[in-house]
């Protein structure tokens, strides 16, 4: 874990930073595995207001670099719609790190906190529909690959994702 990092619940004040990190990470990191048109559609679907209900529900956490007060990443955890096991499942709906922050370990620290929160909710597993560029990251965090899925972005754009599960 990164020593100079604070992970906390996001507030409305964080919306602009969350949006910036989200869109820049899509442009700079996801473009290695998805075409320009798909990336552009994905970025265009984002807007600052879409994060507000999730922030109000305390579903989004942010990683802040100590001393700078700068948000360098965020994660979104929610109750899973479908049951993957006999118990309760939680889903990571998004985890993005500022591609320019240069801090290593931010993503891993966010995953650990999301897992801790899932355990606190008595979940027995965490599921993620990983973008293809993040599959290896989630493997290193202990997630096991399941089937390839698709995420419809628009009538013309459909992204492949890797469903991954981690038992808690």
From TrEMBL:
What's in the keyword line of the UniProt record?
Answer: Acyltransferase, Transferase
* Organism per entry: Desmophyllum pertusum
| Listed CDD domains | NAT_SF
Its recorded name reads N-acetyltransferase domain-containing protein
Q: Where in this chain does the record put each N-acetyltransferase domain?
A: 5-168
Q: Name one GO molecular function term.
A: acyltransferase activity, transferring groups other than amino-acyl groups
Q: Which Gene3D superfamilies match?
A: 3.40.630.30
InterPro entries per record: Acyl_CoA_acyltransferase, Bact_Acetyltransf, GNAT_dom
Which Pfam families is this protein grouped with? Answer: Acetyltransf_1
């Amino acid at each position: 874990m990164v020593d100079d990092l604070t992970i906390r619940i996001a507030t409305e004040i964080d919306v602009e930073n969350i949006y910036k990190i989200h869109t820049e990470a899509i442009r700079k990191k996801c473009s290695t595995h998805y075409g320009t048109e798909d990336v552009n559609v994905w970025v265009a679907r984002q807007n600052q207001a879409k994060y507000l209900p999730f922030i109000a529900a305390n579903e989004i956490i942010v990683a802040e670099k100590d001393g700078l007060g700068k948000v360098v990443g965020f994660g979104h955890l929610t109750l899973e719609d479908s049951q993957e096991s006999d118990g309760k499942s939680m889903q990571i709906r998004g985890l993005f790190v500022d591609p320019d922050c240069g801090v290593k370990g931010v993503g891993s620290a966010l995953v650990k906190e999301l897992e801790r929160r899932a355990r606190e909710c008595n979940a027995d597993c965490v599921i993620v529909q990983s973008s293809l560029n993040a599959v290896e990251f989630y493997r290193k965090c202990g997630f096991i690959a399941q089937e390839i899925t698709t995420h419809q972005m628009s009538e013309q754009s459909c992204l492949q994702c890797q469903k991954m599960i981690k038992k808690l």
